């Protein structure tokens, strides 16, 4: 199987996440790094976006999933985004996702969660 990797580096958005009092009252910035290994099923036609997976759709899916509701834990948010991607984009064979909170601690650039999931082969 031939694959192509789509990636996002430090996609920045504000989301409602966390369990602390101040996190329950306001949004906070998140940075998202993501990689998607996409099955290549046809040749690229430079005149037809339909011959590739439009990365705008992946970006929209990430942003929508991260901002649709308050989530207590980064682990939950990572799992929800991966579930959504693998459900909505059948050509995505592998997802690696890192979501970080850049303002969580004053003594480091960010803290976050990274996870990876591969699509299960058809039984």
UniProtKB/TrEMBL annotation:
- Could you give a single Gene Ontology term from the biological process aspect? tetrahydrofolate biosynthetic process
Enzyme class, broadest EC rank: lyase
Q: Which Pfam families does the protein's record reference? A: FolB
For this UniProt record, give its keywords in alphabetical order, as a comma-separated list: Folate biosynthesis, Lyase
Q: Which domain of life is it from?
A: Bacteria
Residue span, Dihydroneopterin aldolase/epimerase domain: 6-117
Family assignment?
Belongs to the DHNA family.
Task: Sum up the protein's function in the record's words.
Answer: Catalyzes the conversion of 7,8-dihydroneopterin to 6-hydroxymethyl-7,8-dihydropterin.
Protein's recorded name = 7,8-dihydroneopterin aldolase
């Amino acid at each position: 199987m031939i694959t192509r990797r789509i990636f996002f580096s430090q996609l920045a958005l504000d989301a409602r996440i966390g369990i602390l009092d101040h996190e329950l009252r306001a949004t906070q910035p998140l940075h998202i790094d993501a990689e998607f290994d996409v099955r290549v099923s046809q040749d690229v036609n430079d005149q037809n976006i339909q011959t590739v997976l439009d990365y705008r759709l992946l970006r929209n899916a990430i942003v929508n999933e991260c901002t649709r509701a308050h989530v207590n834990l980064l682990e939950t948010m990572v799992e929800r985004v991966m579930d959504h991607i693998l459900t909505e984009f059948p050509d995505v064979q592998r997802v690696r996702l890192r979501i970080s909170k850049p303002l969580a601690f004053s003594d480091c650039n960010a803290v976050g969660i990274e996870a990876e999931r591969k699509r299960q082969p058809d039984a």
